[in-house]
């Protein structure tokens, strides 16, 4: 696989979990028969792929491993870099993808165990998606500075979440901060080439505004303060502590802050002199083809764009009808609130009720920690789940927004259910407890499954709220689904049918009753397929659920459905569908 994951890809990388044995609904993996020599060879190949990726650069290694020696990796030999965005790196990635595919496809599928075949299918799907998207004709079409996943919005979260507990790890962190400006310069150079090739499509005002906020904070950044607090916690002598804090501050000033100055200068120049595209991917020569591949990758399926459009159109109209049937004329559901005063109360309440509907896991330890102030003030997010290292314990960390003044809002409750239980945190622990192959829950996830499942979990969890009329909760849920399904349809319109803002607003309002404002339009324009993993994933799960009910009729059991779904882990949906079909026949 590509040796360097890098910042942009790690913004999307989550957990890979493969399907358990197809007919299983038990809570733990059944013991496998003794492996043949050929099957052991396949397992060795998987381990080699995991190790090669983990040791490709220090950011990847630090993100996934607590103790590199667990995998016989010498962290001292790993390059302290975020990688580079340049033609050389793109060509290296292409070669690595093809090499990995060749090695993978050299194995005889029929000689593998059922679970190994699942892993093979997952791996092949991911690598083929990567191969298609890395075609040279698409080299400069993706943006390095999108408003939701660009490097400028990623670095604050990366370093706010960065932890170290030894002097050597501190030294390595400083080297990584010193690499930020060089990595950023490579992204800027990439963007200038993008402009020359006619693929520039950036929201300059939002990028410049973001950079100015970072630069205005300067050395008063809460991200820097958080790192310096960790230096204090290392229990070094006072002289060492002072020296390291000064070195950290110098790196932050000379590289981290300098990177934002570089971005600001470049964006100001490109805003004035660049050829910025005002329309979506369909306006580019290969944009429609690229968007089709992006859609495949972000829906975890083999669906064509028109099939996704049909799925979401049908779902959106059904949600709209159900909403109308449940909503009061005064729209009072929008003003309904919970009685919660803390995130802990929400999680405890959900955990007390959810195991009637979801299988138990052995470990659900977690801690709740505030986001750094800079991150909290910029993203507006109530909470997010920070993934534990794959060799660490299963104690999850929920990062929460200390500035959230809407603790009682239903939306806050749904976000906590999405990120915590029975969403990401619970699903991650379940996967790690039930799936033995580390590669399957570490590197190559289907974001559509993972985000689709968490979106399903947040809507499902509304039934655990007390003191609010079920009809109001149903109206709230359906209203949210209408909005976000409509945003996916708007995304398709912008990037596949080349809708401009006026056309987009007209089509969505006439067909679904939803108003797309300028901010939403720009968000979709500058970040294609941003919402697809969440809502096409959700709708695919709901489609499977409906088919399960129709197939099993009176034998349908909600907990069994959830167990089969969770046993699959975050895999492409065609694999989930195959495993579901086998389970229904069992």
TrEMBL record:
Record carries keyword Signal: yes
Phylogenetic classification of the source organism: Bacteria, Bacillati, Bacillota, Erysipelotrichia, Erysipelotrichales
InterPro entries reported in the protein's UniProt record: DUF885
Keyword Signal listed: yes
Keywords: Signal
Official protein name in the record: Bacterial protein of uncharacterized function (DUF885)
Signal peptide positions (record): 1-26
Pfam families, A to Z: DUF885 (PF05960)
Domain of life: Bacteria
Organism the protein comes from: Faecalicoccus pleomorphus
């Amino acid at each position: 696989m590509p040796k360097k994951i890098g910042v942009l890809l790690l913004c999307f990388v989550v957990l890979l979990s493969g399907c358990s044995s197809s007919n299983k609904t038990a809570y733990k993996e059944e013991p496998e028969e003794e492996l043949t020599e050929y099957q052991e060879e396949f397992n060795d190949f998987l381990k080699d792929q995991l190790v090669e990726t983990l040791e490709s650069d220090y950011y990847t290694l630090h993100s996934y491993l607590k103790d590199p020696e667990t995998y016989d990796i010498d962290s001292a030999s790993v390059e302290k870099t975020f990688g580079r965005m340049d033609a050389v790196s793109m060509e290296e990635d292409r070669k690595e993808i093809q090499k990995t595919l060749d090695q993978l496809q050299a194995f005889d599928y029929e000689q593998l165990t059922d679970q190994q075949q699942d892993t093979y299918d997952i791996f092949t799907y991911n690598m083929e998606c990567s191969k298609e998207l890395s075609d040279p004709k698409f080299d400069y079409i993706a943006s390095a500075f999108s408003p939701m996943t660009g490097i400028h919005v990623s670095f604050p979260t990366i370093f706010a979440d960065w932890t170290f507990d030894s002097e050597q790890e501190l030294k390595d962190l400083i080297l990584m901060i010193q690499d930020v400006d060089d990595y950023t310069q490579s992204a800027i150079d990439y963007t200038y080439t993008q402009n020359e090739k006619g693929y520039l499509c950036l929201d300059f005002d939002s990028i410049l505004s973001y950079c100015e906020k970072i630069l205005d904070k300067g050395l008063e950044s809460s991200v820097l303060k958080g790192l310096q607090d960790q230096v204090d916690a290392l229990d070094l002598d006072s002289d060492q502590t002072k020296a390291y804090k000064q070195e950290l501050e110098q790196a932050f000033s000379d590289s981290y802050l300098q990177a934002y100055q570089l971005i600001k200068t470049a964006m100001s120049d490109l805003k004035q002199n660049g050829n910025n595209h005002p329309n979506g991917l369909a306006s580019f020569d290969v944009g429609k083809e690229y968007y089709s591949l992006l859609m495949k990758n972000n829906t975890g399926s083999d669906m064509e764009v028109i099939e996704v459009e049909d799925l979401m159109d049908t779902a959106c109209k059904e949600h709209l009808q159900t909403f109308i049937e449940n909503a009061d004329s005064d729209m009072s559901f929008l003003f309904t609130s919970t009685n919660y005063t803390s995130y802990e109360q929400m999680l405890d309440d959900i955990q007390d009720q959810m195991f009637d509907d979801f299988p138990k896991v052995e470990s659900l330890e977690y801690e709740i920690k505030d986001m750094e102030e800079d991150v909290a003030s910029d993203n507006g997010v109530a909470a997010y789940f920070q993934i534990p290292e794959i060799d660490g314990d299963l104690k999850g960390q929920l990062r929460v927004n200390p500035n959230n003044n809407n603790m009682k809002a239903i939306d806050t409750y749904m976000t906590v259910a999405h990120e915590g239980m029975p969403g990401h945190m619970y699903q991650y622990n379940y996967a790690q407890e039930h799936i033995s192959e580390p590669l399957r829950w570490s590197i190559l996830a289907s974001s559509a499954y993972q985000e689709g499942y968490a979106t399903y979990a947040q809507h499902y969890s509304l039934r655990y709220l007390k003191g609010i009329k079920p009809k109001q909760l149903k109206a709230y849920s359906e209203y949210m689904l209408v909005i976000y399904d409509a945003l996916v349809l708007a995304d398709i319109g912008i990037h596949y049918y080349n809708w401009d803002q006026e056309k987009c607003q007209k089509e969505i309002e006439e067909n679904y009753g939803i108003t797309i404002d300028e901010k939403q339009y720009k968000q979709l324009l500058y970040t294609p397929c941003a919402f697809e993993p969440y809502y096409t994933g959700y709708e695919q799960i709901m489609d499977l659920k409906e088919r399960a009910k129709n197939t099993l009729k009176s034998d349908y059991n909600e907990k069994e459905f959830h167990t089969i779904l969770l046993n699959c882990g975050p895999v492409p949906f065609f694999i989930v569908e195959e495993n579901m079909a086998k389970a229904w026949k069992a």
